[in-house]
Amino acid sequence: MISTKIQDAINAQINAELWSAYLYLSMGMHFESEGNAGIANWFRIQFKEEQAHAEIFINYLISRGGRVILKPIEAVPTTWESPLAAYVATLEHEQKVTALINNLYALAEEEHDYATRGKLDWFVAEQVEEEETAQALIDRLKLIGDNGLALYMLDQELASRVYNVPSPLAAKA
Length: 173
Ligand code: MG
Hints:
Elements: H1 4-34, H2 37-63, H3 83-110, H4 114-144, H5 148-158, H6 167-170
This protein binds magnesium ion.
């Protein structure tokens, strides 16, 4: 059985992951309407990954005999000035998520809940990757500046991103 404190914190994390999914879906829809189909694809896959993150926490809470409580998902922004602005917002958001995961990790230690702490290891590593990827795209977009051909090439590249089921979910299937 899981403590109420950890259960509440995981439910809050499920909400945060679903908000992330909603944010990236909104970014995807924005870039669809801007004609950047590759960037839109990248964000739509990001949306699926965030849904998967929520599902990993959902499955975990159920496996520990906890109760999943789905709370309202707050509204997300709907427009961004440029691809660079969207990736800067992505990095800032992922840095916040990293802090949430770290807080959850600290709580698990405080509560001597080592199963939860262990489950969080995958998320700690995932956050390093999320921040690194967003930063790399920011760097490239800064180099691209207002070069339309370079942006077109990046868009083509991002169009080839495919969704891979994250390993903690794949192992469940
Ligand atoms: Mg996430």
